[in-house]
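Protocol step 4 of 5: obtain the predicted structure for the target chain.
Materials: sequence only (see below). No template structures provided, no constraints applied. The aim of this step is simply to have a reference model before the mutagenesis design in step 5. Sequence pasted as it appears in the construct record:
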Amino acid sequence: MIYVPYDLKSDATSNEIRLSRKKILKKTFKANIILIAIFLAVTLVYLSSPAVISQTLSPLGINNEALVMLFLLAVVFLAVVINILYNYLYYRTYYFNVKEDLIVIRKGIFLPDEISIPYNRIQDIYVDRDTLDLIFGLYDVHVSSATVTSEKDAHIDGVTNANAVKLKEMILAKVKEASSHESPL
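Step 4 output (structure tokens):
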């Protein structure tokens, strides 16, 4: 059972401003490319020196060349399916909420990371993209504060351009409101 500490239907900004489903593709793309590269490397090792992999797999009773290749393909296929499933669950449990006094971002399935940043501690809000974001048409909204975890955890990644702008404006409005209530000292 996946632990979700919030009522995602009633109180989450992430319910209104959804992550793009392309986020699943982006996250699986990197890992699947690596898995395919590993498969190709192992295949090249097998083709150049079949004894190495045959000896490694012989305790499993896999001695036939066709069975070795089939086994390697099955392992890669299973890893790809697990990767896609994991990233789908990650997408489904990703939570962020722009509350009255702070923003909450929660990511992860089995060991979720959660960060809560009061608006009066926010120093910067910016939108950026990496190469895969550019390919998939995604944007990341970063919320910076003077904490170490802010750099690692305080970003909402995988939103469309319209949602990135909307989210940034929502947070900026809350930051302005919080700063107007602070004392000048």
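Step 4 remarks: The first strand starts at residue 95 and ends at 98. The two ends are 48 Å apart (CA to CA).
Proceed to step 5.
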